[in-house]
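Q: Sequence in, structure out?
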Amino acid sequence: MSDAIAAGPAADPAKDAPEDAAKDAAADPGFSTRWRALLLAAVAACAACGIVYELALLTLSTSLHGGGIVATSLIVAGYVAALGAGALLVKPLLGHAAITFIGVETLLGIVGGLSAAALYVTFAFIGGSVAVLVVGTALIGALVGAEVPLLMTLLQRGRLAGAADAGRVLANLNAADYLGALIGGLAWPLLLLPQLGIIRGAAATGIINLTAAAVVSVFLLRRVLTRVQLGTALGVLTGALLVLATLLLTADGIETTTRQRLYTDPIVAFERSPYQEIVVTRRGADTRLYLDGALQFSTRDEFRYTESLVYPALGDGARSVLILGGGDGLAARELLRQPHVDTIVQVELDPAVVELARTTLRDINGGALTDPRVRVIIDDAMTWLRHPDPLPEGGFDAVIVDLPDPDNPVLGRLYSSEFYTLVSRVLAADGLMAVQAGSPFSTPNAFWRNVATIESAGFAVTPYHVHVPTFGDWGFALARGGDTAPTPRIPGDAPPLRFLDQRVLDAATVFSPDIGPRPMQPSTLTEPRIVDDMRQGYS
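A: Exactly. Output:
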């Protein structure tokens, strides 16, 4: 493009671009190829960034709100609908495709890059962030939806394809778009989330988004834009980059300050693993563990929970015990107090929790997970049960299921008929299984659903419950194969206990009328009813 045309007040880039591009292509046969390649690379980069923004919001929404199937479906459906709305809304601006593309990418980079931080801060300071989630999803979807029509227009104006080749151009555009989405979908869980976390990962993605727009502006769209337009665009892009760079550098401080507002006691340890957010708080002698914001134990009263879960499962003389979950090491601690228990296999999904148990929580669990009698296996409980190794001859004498509440589909599968059927295959013929089953008072449907589900796997079940002050009324299920329900008993060789004795355990099997048995259908992999039970109970 000549200086006169570029600087002239009457310049119309939309009209001049085809001629200039055609001249450039004639003078340099490789120009068309480079133009096409760079624009398609921009399509892939923008698509990758768009999917990362949405995954970041979904990940954070799961941590903050539980991420139910309905909420997730609404977010995904809303994002897809916003894609279509964005494609329609940008139609009047296609006559100015170049400058509009830069504007769209600038907005997308800044909105997407700031979205996770805005969602987290809003949740911490206001207590609700659904509005931010909905608005963020709609804006990001609309801006991503506007990209393809703009890029298609730019490709056509460059005369890289005639009318007969429009299908080929569209196919290339779609291929680049879907490839970029694949790259973004893999980069989020494998690279950005584990290395940078949600807030910094979104900010870094915004920087990539803005950088891609700047590269396209400098190397391609300068042939289409006036000098004033190009200078203004680069200035705005630079300002947006500085904002996101500042967020990237200060994200740790912002996140630490904001996170502390969510917890009453001072945070002494924090880690975001690929599976969950892990927080340990401490005030005086009270240490608490939270997973995704849900309290797992308090040292003020965890012995009430732990003793009630572990000792009834041991019967008389259990020697081999399988723990599913229990990564905090508290169940293993109690088992190691039993003189006859010589084999403990613990299957825990998250290695970050195990490492925390071996370090920060070591004084609480007595170093149980470093004891040679305890073999820790990092694996999904259901996956491991399909191919259990090692498995004592005849099966385990006891199985302790100490898993988080099934408030999402991932955990719901571990409270299914299929899961308990797999447990029955590794349990000795006369062995016992104890399951933490939730609160019969706060979530009664979930509690009795769990009992019905265990029974559906061929177990006879005795439910029982105790009072744990930080949890309230908390329930368990003791089960054995066959038709005769077991009677909860404390082993004769049990060490002195702080809470549990036989009188307490006998009383624990009695349920008042308001929380008594309810007829429920079992929860299965295809119908995870217990997840809805948990959500309704909490609400």
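Confidence is low (pLDDT under 50) at residues 1-29.
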